[in-house]
Amino acid sequence: MSTTISIAGATGKFALLLAANLRKSPDAKIRAFCRSPNKLPEDLSSSSQVTIVQGDATDEDAIRSFGKGCDVVVCCYLGDNALMTDRQKLLVDACEHEHVPRYIASDYYLDFTKLEYRDHLAKNPIKHVKAHLDTKKNVKGVHVLIGAFMETFWSEYFGIFYAKSPKFTYYGTGDEIWESTTYGTAAEYVAAIALNKEAIRKQQCKLNEFSRLFIYNTS
Q: Are residues 71 and 174 in the same domain?
């Protein structure tokens, strides 16, 4: 039986890696929602597994059409608070109206549910999105906890490691564990979760390196 996965923000780096992993499954059908379909690579846009839906994150009619009849919506938005909060809420509302059973929220990061709103302002949007999902009856929220994207975490943008200096910044004793996952491995995780119709709520994924078996810790 085929599974229809709708990807919002389909032209982004993570979304493209996710789509590439999903296409490895012959039973996966992908809907790619984006403003500029010309930004999609040719191998994706021409694939028989892929249907493109053009629209803006504020276009409620396009969002409803994009979500209708699918098995799961995966949000790959990355941007300001309005996009990450208000625009995600529009996707959630569309899922609720169209009876989409699962919504995989964007902001693949640490376990934000342990944070208060004042603890980490950049994580407030995903806390608002989770609270919004919790009010819905038809759609179940899925939150993938990866720690941090490794490529970003070790870049100068994150302010932890400066390769040219070299300089390393840390807090606490220096013995704290920092969890991070590459974009590629995180995309594998999310693809596996999207195809697993039983995966809901928090998904903290670990990988058995010997068997390449995904292990889901669900709470």
A: no
